[in-house]
Write a structure and sequence with these properties.
This protein is an alpha+beta fold. Helices cover 22% and strands 44% of the residues. The chain has a 15-stranded antiparallel sheet that branches. The N and C termini lie far apart (69 Å).
């Protein structure tokens, strides 16, 4: 009986020690959190948005891929953009394929290299991008973006599928102005991401975009349409640069416009959860330097975005400026 009491006492001591150690570990993780997972997610999402913008532009500029007989106007000219930092190889356009080659020019604080290949699925059967339901395969070929201000970089390799859900294209929205809005979904599994320093991640991006042109200002609203582990409305899920599983769930649609740029959403909320952490990272886009949500007007843009995390009764935050 005495031996049992001793063993029971030792067991209780070990359990108490384990709980204390676990509690200290969680507390330390909370204190050391820097919001990197949410920052990485925002970087990849915004640079992916930039790439999708170029895709929408060039598939609309191409008469063969778009599906119109003629029309020489350029979508970027309609938007007042004169420098793109890339050239377009149209050699395969008659088969439904073109390639965007980035030349390393620095524009809007970003230097882009590599290429993106666009291919309309079932082109030979008559599919064209202006048709609702048309699917465009987008292959990222060592597509790398370097932020000139701090030399931070992200490289994308892999394949995404863009689906035209409404019919029509940027040609109809921006030049002909015959449509009030356009809808596109972007889906892709196992997109390989490489950050500066060589660390890698895997992203599964699933988003729905709605493009509008109010007062001649291109505006995009992004929502999450993916699901994983019982969660819905995911814009992204996969593994972080540290190998941890994560999800990014959109609770309020994320909105950006051409004035502020794809990298600077003016509103929206998302929650990033990393499996190895006991807390989530709550992201609020479109804030001032103090982290307060702002309402932007004409030719005005927010300072940045805020991420907050909580553990028990403690809350911490970090504010990122849009670069």
């Amino acid at each position: 009986m005495k031996t049992k009491r001793v063993l029971f006492g030792i067991s209780c001591l070990l359990l108490a020690s384990a709980l204390t150690f676990t509690g200290c570990k969680k507390k330390k993780a909370f204190k050391e959190e820097d919001g990197q997972s949410s920052a990485d997610n925002r970087t990849v999402q915004s640079e992916n948005d930039a790439a999708v913008n170029d895709v929408n532009t060039e598939v609309g500029n191409s008469t063969l891929l778009h599906g119109r007989i003629s029309g020489t106007a350029n979508i970027y000219n309609a938007l007042g953009i004169t420098s793109t930092g890339y050239t377009v190889d149209t050699t395969g356009a008659y088969m439904g394929t073109i390639k965007i080659n980035y030349d390393g020019t620095t524009i809007s604080n970003r230097t882009r290299t590599g290429a993106i290949r666009l291919t309309i699925q079932n082109y030979a059967s008559g599919k064209r991008w202006k048709q609702a339901g048309c699917v465009l395969q987008v292959d990222y070929l060592t597509y790398k973006v370097v932020r000139a201000s701090d030399n931070k970089s992200v490289e994308l390799n892999g394949t995404q599928l863009l689906t035209n859900t409404t019919g029509g294209t940027w040609w109809e929205l921006l030049i002909l102005k015959t449509q009030a809005s356009l809808g596109t979904t972007v889906t892709g599994s196992n997109l390989n991401i490489t950050f500066d320093g060589g660390k890698t991640a895997v992203y599964n991006i699933n988003r729905r975009f709605t493009y509008t042109y109010p007062n001649n200002l291109l505006t995009c609203t992004g929502e999450g349409i993916g699901s994983d582990n019982g969660l819905s409305s995911l814009e992204n899920y996969g593994t972080t640069r540290d190998g941890d599983a994560f999800t990014s769930q959109v609770s309020t649609p994320i909105v950006w416009n051409l004035t502020c740029g794809w990298w600077a959403p003016i509103q929206g909320k998302a929650t990033v959860k990393v499996d190895s952490k006991e807390f989530s990272l709550d992201c609020l886009f479109g804030v001032d330097a103090a982290g307060n949500a702002v309402t932007v007007g004409a030719n005005q843009c927010p300072y940045g975005w805020k991420v907050e995390w909580k553990y028990k009764s403690k809350t911490s935050k970090k504010i990122f400026g849009y670069a």
